[in-house]
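Q: Here's a chain of 123 amino acids. Please give me its 3D structure as tokens.
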Amino acid sequence: VQLQASGGGLVQPGGSLRLSCAASGRIFDIRNMGWYRQAPGKHRELVAFITTTTRTQSATYVDSVKGRFTISRDNARNLVFLQMNSLKVEDTAVYYCNADLRVDSSWSFATYWGQGTLVTVSS
């Protein structure tokens, strides 16, 4: 199983970026998909995650990005996106995607991580 994140880059304060993450390989099902970030000298923190069941889908955000970031998911293609608007300098970090998934129906869920994509917000 691999998670491949993309979409990072340099943007001015107030600008927007859209991150994408694709999960590939032997995947039976995915429970949660999410985004974390790690700024220089800081611990990795949760940004947002999205949970999909057979009947519902729900998203959770860290307070600092509420109203500015939107997480979404394409279940058919095992993709997760993070639309980031009104970006601030303090959003600068390496962004990592992750997924809680099973490779077989008889296996337990395990967490997999992508390689990270750098987002730099600067004028």
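Q: Can you summarize the key feature?
A: The chain has a mean pLDDT of 95.
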